[in-house]
Amino acid sequence: MFEPISHSWELHCHSLFSDGSLSAQALYDLALERDVRHLVLTDHDTAEGYRWLTEQGQLQPECQLWPGVELSSQWQGRSVHVVGVGMDVTSPHWRQIEARYAVARDKRLERILFLLAREGLNIDVDALRTQAGAGTLGRPHIARYLVDSGQVKDSATAFKRWLGNGKVGDVKQSWPELAEAVADIAGSGGVAVLAHPHRYKLTWRKLDQLLTDFTDAGGRAVEVCCPAMPDAMRKRLAAYCAQEGVMVSGGSDFHQPDTPWASLGRYPQWPTQAPLLTDWLLSQAV
Ligand code: AMP
Ligand code: MN
Ligand code: MN
Ligand code: MN
Question: Hey, where are the domains in the chain?
């Protein structure tokens, strides 16, 4: 595996506004401490963290905060994530988009809880909502609830048995199609980035199909530099981006400080041939 290095850009990370463990302020402070000079906060289906941090007025010139999101979608019966960077996240149009994803998330939660109850698991939805607070409520919250209530020994087991890919709690029917998520981002002035392609367990042929469908829908960048991506895939994706003129992105997908494999600002080196999303974003900023 290619050694992660420290970067001045972090383009994929989470706060308490979704399933991260740090408040948006603590995450921003950590970025400052790590010499991250450009931070894109990409909470699941919400840009509330960006709006909140901006309103606090505590941002420093050393670290620029960019509006971002990680939208949930489905593609060929799988759940696929699309990162968005640079949308106008204060517009009523964008807020309507967030509201749509919140409805989808609520519907999905209801279905997940129904299916888990059938398996004999007991989950109090009000306790779950309290736990998630102002953040979008996702499967990691359910995992933690199951651990705290003594029904599962740890979070990894909860995903392995109930919540992970292909398990009973992996419900994705409520999510918009991939092309719709891309259009939501592009239609709000953002760049759509295919998130962590190595996580979908696709054959090379399926991966090519996903890349084609994604770029046909208006997707303009792909995460190529992810900490846990196998070298073979990273090279293949970098070659694809160079050939097709698709931009390369990357990021740690940081959720919490105690996971050394997803450390804020650390991920593999940028490839030398393909266009970089970071260069493009800087060229747009006036
Ligand atoms: P959701 O937004 O509810 O679909 O939850 C997806 C999130 O669950 C991901 O962003 C990860 O943070 C987490 N996750 C997904 N798969 C696993 C896994 N196998 N183990 C631990 N966390 C996971
Ligand atoms: Mn997550
Ligand atoms: Mn993701
Ligand atoms: Mn993520």
Answer: 5-91+177-284
User: Which residue stretches of the chain have pLDDT < 70?
Assistant: 1-2, 286
According to DSSP, the β-strands at 247-250 and 64-66 are unpaired
CATH architecture of 5-91+177-284: Alpha-Beta Barrel (3.20)
Whether ligand 1 lies within 6 angstroms of the CB of 19 is answered as yes
Q: From the CA of 60, how far away is ligand 4's center (Å)?
A: 24
**Ligand 1 proximity of 140 Cβ (cutoff 6 Å):** yes
For residue 2, the model assigns a pLDDT of 66
Q: Positive or negative, the Cα torsion across 235, 39, 279, 69? A: positive
Q: Other C-beta atoms within 10 Å of 117: how many?
A: 11
pLDDT in tens, 51-110: 999 999 999 999 999 999 999 999 999 999 999 999 999 999 999 999 999 999 999 999
Spatial CA neighbour of 113 closest among 121, 101, 105, 102 = 121
| Ligand 1 within 6 A of CB of 44 | yes
Residue type for 218, please? G
Q: What is the pTM of this model?
A: 0.98
**31 exposure class (CB count in 10 Å sphere: 0-12, 13-18, 19+):** buried
Distance 6 CA to ligand 4 centre (A): 18
Could you identify the residue written with the tokens 């901006």?
54
Please state the φ and ψ torsions of residue 153, each to the nearest 5 degrees. -75, -35
